[in-house]
Amino acid sequence: MSLAFSEMSSVVLETPLPDLSVLRGVAVTALGVVAVVTGALVFKVDSMARATYLLAASFVAVGAAVVALHLDYVGVVVVLMMLMEMAVMGVFMVMLMGMNPALMPMSMVHSKRRALVAAGASFVVLAVGILLVDWPQRSSVPPEGPAGSTEGGATTYSLGDALMGDHMLVMMVVSPVMLATIVAGVVLAQAQGRYARLGDDLRGTTQGGRR
Amino acid sequence: MAVSLRPLQRVLARWAVRGTAVLLVEVPGGWAARAAVERALVERGWRAASSPADADAVVVCGTPGESWGEVLERTWEQMPGPRARASVSAPSEVPGALEGLAASLLDDDAQRADAASRDLVPADVENGDDMHPAGLDLAGGEDDLRDGLEMDVLRVPLGPVLPDWPAGLVLRTVLSGDVVVRARVEVLAGAAARRDSADDARRGDDVARRLDAAAQVLRLAGADDVAARAVHLRDAALPAGLRSLSPRSAPSPSGLRSLLTSSRGAGAEEAHEVRGEAARLRGRVERSRVLAWALREADVATSSPTSGAESDAAQASAPGDLRDVGLDARRRTRDDVRTLLLGLLDPDARDDDPGRRTRAALEALPERLVGVDVVTARLLVAALDLRTDALGDDDLAAFAPRDDEDEDGDEADGGDAHAHHHGHAHG
Amino acid sequence: MGDVVQVAVPWVLLAAVLLGVAALGVTALDGALAARAAGRSASVGAQHPLVETARLLRQRRRTTVAADTLLRHVAVGGFVVAPLLMVAVVPLGEWVLADASVGVVWFNAVDVLVWVLVWLAGWGPNAAWSLTGGYRFLAQAMAYELPLMFALTAPAVAAGSLRVGDVAAAQPGLPHVVWMPVAFVVYCTGVLAFSVRGPLSPAGGAAISGGVLAELSGVDRLLVLAGRAGLLVAGAAFAVPLFLGGGSGPLLPGWLWVLVKTALLAAALVVVRRRLPDVRPERFLALGWTVLLPAALLQLLVVSVVVVVRS
């Protein structure tokens, strides 16, 4: 199988990559519009649940646009992570902002002036950045990925390489440590939880301290 | 067009009615009727509905008292339709009642008229205002029992129309998420003379009733197949007078079938056989490690002071120490759901005064449920085998439904747990 | 993998039909088992899906006070779409609807979509039991999702590809399930959890009166019931290329092997599901974080070492 694969990918590599096709351009633009519109609607609707899942829809559109740019892995992971995050965030939004399901219409905007200034300023900074940065020219040859990878895979590989470089191993070691830190932090910060009954050793043998 | 669709609709209706979902509403004193309906449902291939939205028909088992009127009407309104209703007060009425339901559900024209006559949006919707959209109360905030964060609380009455739930019991709960913050017990009494059921108990249906309670616990725990076994045994253990259906068609555990058909009413022998089967079922439940794992610690509140002294101590101490208060006591002194379940399946256990036992359990219930999640609460309520039909008049008066649902009423009734909870959360 | 051909979009109809038939099949099996346990004839119980479909087609849709109808519709419709999105990347022998280069991640993204659907189905009706179901599902979601992710990673690492067809082709003679059984078990646990029924689904169950289903009637209910049966089937179908050697097998053509393996695994999951009582979320959290996750990680380590040694 791997033989067939490298043959195939070598064929791909030798063929010059066509420019972004019209179709792809249209798709990226349309998805961008969807992302912006759903993102803006977040501030128009009057329910926490709708706001949360409009934001999720916006991120899904971004993920789809990234897929359309041939970064398949990054795009699908964006969708995956954002659905997950928004599902969890929705719970926190409802918990902290308190209201009945779907009932209490409430405004999704607060301290409008400051928010507008902050948003405008960051937009200007980013837009200026985009215009001023000396972007590298797109080569007509797709970046080389590991043997056997497709065009999308190779692009993802080179993106990861550009971001992480030699630090991939460090990142891979650090991420489980960070996860453990988060979990431990939550456990320690919680004075009491569903596991308190099991005592400090989590075996359920500890005597109730104040009994 | 309508004419050409008619035969198709009739076929659809016939198929639909073969799987009718029936919402069972048990009124105190109606347990024998309910058991008979359950048995008839299995025979017809029908099933019990899990909620009004799931139901095609509602069957009221027993004779409801005055306090039931509004509850039954609201349940009827909540059913999507096609819908039908019936009430049975004795096992012998069951076959006729179910026939009637089937006929009513099959009557397309009548169902169409019923559907046209009502709007499926519930009738009590008002226009509402900012704080009462659609005429409903907003969820209020309340400090969470576990971590002191303010959480939404919802006022949710549990019962009386709830599957696998004691007849007529209403738990007016305040829920924070899925955790009970406080609860108040009410009992909607039946109109039928409760002496009958007391007599039933003396006639020896006690084993049957405890098997019935065990089946409810097992169903709630999701152990459907074991529950079905317990239901078999319950039906076999019923005194002959309470069996409405012909013994030929009555489902029974395979080992019992011959006994039932040959010597109906041969009480002693039969009872002995049922006891043996019950003991075997108990062994099966006891040995099941999965069930033990799933039910273990199912009656352990995460944290709630159990007495005033403890609460004061908790308040005085650092927050870090607070978590142990009361937990250990609960773990050691309270039976958990599994223990109660095993007790229900013990054929030799005796229940001499179900009325007094039920009253004591109901009085202790609000405090016991504080900090317990709703699923555990339902398991516990089922496992306690509450016999509301054995309550005396003065007991019923003590648990009579009250109109005041305001904060003060709840607080006054919510018991010590609530007051303490507030105490330490703000302290 | 050269021998997986991406078919045209209209074939999605065939996929939907196959999925629907399989969903009816697992529901019928469940009904038959339930009927047998209740002392009734299994063949009558097997008619349950047809009877229930007729019943729900005839029933009216019901609304609740101040419901979020839009979000409820999104959830109900999504339940039907999600299983289709899952099977879109599963090769049926040599044909596949979408030969995605990251099919494994795609499947994972769709099973996370189930989180959204369940919660929205719980939120939409604006009712206590539904909401409780939605919250309880999310409460345990991470405890099955993380182990599931690592279980999905193991076969992909072994095959050196995230394309489902490649993973299927990477196990000639020796299906992955043989040398990564832990990942397979963890994966099946995940399928049981995201198919919103049975022991690992606190979103429903008798103890909360059906939970997210409590307020649904008529077509709404039918679609959710069909969708969750579809999720079980899709989960079983995806295990075929991942763990069970895809379409490889003696005598029969590849596509038939895929169907047979899917049916067998789905049936096995139904049987297992019936035998287990409901597990409360806090119980499952302990199991997920302290047993399933470490086990899945160790399995991944073993697979990675084998891959490195082999190459």
From TrEMBL, chain C:
Family of the protein in this entry: Belongs to the complex I subunit 1 family.
Keyword Ribonucleoprotein found: no
Protein name, UniProt field: NADH-quinone oxidoreductase subunit H
Main location: membrane
GO biological process: aerobic respiration
Keyword Ribosomal protein: no
InterPro entries (UniProt xref): NADH_UbQ_OxRdtase_su1/FPO (IPR001694)
Lineage: Bacteria, Bacillati, Actinomycetota, Actinomycetes, Kineosporiales
